[in-house]
Design a protein that fits this description.
By secondary structure, the chain is mainly alpha-helical. The chain has six helices and no strands.
Length: 187
């Protein structure tokens, strides 16, 4: 991780960070678009539930979700799954560069990478169960669920870590400003 930290450190500037967050937002739009288009074509009021949006599910519940999607919904979900192979990398890089720019040490970039790894594992498992459907593989479906749980845990830790680092940054900045102001008054 330390080598990766040193490699990414020169890229941790406001322009790169804004660019990465912008790419993440655009990619998120393309994640939601196929399901939104399917919901409109199927006259649904909301975007259908897919495995990625569920916090926990049994293999039976997972296969029920895939069944409820129907053929067109599963095709839309396949498109989402393809786009979701870019999203973890973009979010990981966005969170990592943001933490590096806030002058944090290399261990602050672990959670985004753990998120990325588990999201990729979840995507691979979901792709497999989508491709074999209506066939079943309960073991892979359960793996997809647990990979999703680990992904959500790592993502939560990464976001809390980033918010904490932002708070620390502004507190330190305020403290330096106050000290500078007191020093100027004393002169």
């Amino acid at each position: 991780m330390e080598k990766l930290y040193k490699f990414l450190k020169p890229m941790a500037n406001i322009y790169t960070i804004l660019f990465m967050w912008s790419l993440s937002i655009v990619n998120f739009y393309f994640l939601v678009k196929p399901l939104n288009d399917y919901a409109i074509s199927a006259s649904l009021d909301t975007i259908p539930i897919v495995l990625d949006t569920m916090n926990y599910y049994t293999s039976e519940e997972g296969y029920q979700v895939l069944s409820n999607l129907g053929e067109d919904g599963r095709n839309a979900y396949r498109l989402v799954n393809y786009v979701d192979f870019i999203f973890p990398f973009l979010i990981c890089l966005s969170l990592t560069l943001s933490n590096i720019a806030l002058k944090q040490r290399y261990y602050h970039i672990i959670a985004p990478f753990v998120f990325m790894i588990f999201d990729y594992l979840e995507n691979i498992a979901e792709k497999y169960v989508l491709e074999i459907f209506p066939g079943r593989n309960d073991f892979i479906m359960n793996l997809a669920c647990y990979f999703g749980l680990m992904k959500m845990l790592a993502m939560s830790i990464a976001w809390i870590n980033l918010l904490w680092n932002i708070l620390q940054y502004f507190c330190k900045r305020q403290q330096r400003s106050s000290e500078k102001h007191i020093e100027q008054k004393s002169q």
